[in-house]
Design goal:
Layout (H helix, E strand, L loop, with lengths): L3 E19 L5 E21 L4 E5 L11 H13 L5 E7 L10 H16 L6 H9 L5 H6 L2 E6 L3 E4 L7 E6 L6 H9 L9 H10 L2 H7 L1 E2 L8 H12 L4 E4 L6 E5 L2 H11 L5 E5 L7 E2 L2
């Protein structure tokens, strides 16, 4: 049995995001088409003979204690498998910005669950790993499964969809972030008239029509994001020829879809100095994956 393993943990964007209800405990029911992208963190997990979980990260803003979702992910794995908890060193190399709506924390949690499944040779199926993941966070099951999927419920009901056509995606974020709780609280005070057409998005993906996909991208939580940088980034992307420019998740990152890479690269140049974070990426067909 190996004593350490590293996992690549991709970010996600929401091609569509709609809120369709609310549970009595405050969780929101969603209907969203999610897409894994090639911006990835790396999570390394090592078994130790020490007590407890030690977390290290190259980003000083990331919590190193129980507040970090990876801590909760490890505890959920041991509870589900009935294995005796052991000492762990978890190291996180961050490329996904925080408070961006890109599921960076959820991706890291997914990475820990996938890593522990490998280290303990438990041979759990993707479905079982997702059962652990949903106890940790709404986006974690998708971050385990990855690819392109329709997510419903609080994010735990996943329906795989045809892969997104080849394209270039620019993801950008200003200095300001948005906490998920803050975004949903603001959303609850709004009346939203226009909602995304998830069914049409599923059809557009099935036929591989990138122009139609861009036309259908929409996120109702954008209405709750009162950050001027978001509108500035969106305008820059559209001016550079993006098919769409839409906030992802609860924000505050925005993505633009470009059929041609040269237009995406030109957009990156325009965003230099305007966005605190800006990267070119592509759609990918996997979630958290062990690095061989």
């Amino acid at each position: 049995m190996d004593s350490s393993v590293a996992v690549r943990t991709p970010a996600k964007i929401n091609l569509t995001l709609d809120i369709v209800g609310k549970r009595s405990d405050g969780y929101h029911f969603m209907k969203t088409v999610m897409q894994s992208v090639s911006i990835c963190d790396t999570v390394s997990v090592e078994l130790t003979d020490k007590d407890g979980i030690e977390i290290s990260c190259d980003d000083e803003n990331v919590p190193r204690d129980e507040k970090n979702i990876v801590h909760k992910a490890a505890a959920a794995f041991f509870e589900y498998t009935k294995l005796k908890p052991c000492g762990l060193d978890i190291s996180i190399e961050k490329n996904i910005p925080m408070q961006a709506g890109l599921a960076g924390g959820s991706a890291n949690a997914a990475g820990v669950i996938v890593a522990l499944n490998e280290l303990f040779e438990t041979e759990l199926s993707t479905h079982q790993l997702c059962e652990i993941g949903v106890k940790v966070g709404a986006d974690v099951p998708f971050c385990i499964a990855g690819g392109t999927a329709l997510a419903e419920g609080i994010g735990e009901i996943l329906t795989p969809l045809p892969a997104m056509p080849e394209c270039s995606i620019v993801v950008a974020k200003g200095k300001e972030g948005i906490s998920t709780a803050e975004a949903f609280k603001k959303y609850d005070g709004l009346i939203i008239e226009k909602h995304p057409d998830n069914d049409e998005m599923v059809v557009a993906l099935a036929v591989g029509n990138i122009e139609k996909i861009g036309e259908l991208c929409m996120n109702v939580l954008e209405e709750a994001a009162d950050i001027p940088e978001i509108q500035m980034i969106k305008k820059t992307m559209l001016d550079c020829g993006a098919l769409c420019a839409v906030m992802t998740g609860s924000g505050s990152a925005v993505y633009g879809i470009f059929p041609k890479k040269k237009h995406a690269l030109a957009c990156l140049d325009e965003l230099d100095g305007l966005a605190d974070f800006a990267k070119l990426c592509t759609p990918i067909d996997s979630g958290a994956q062990i690095i061989k």
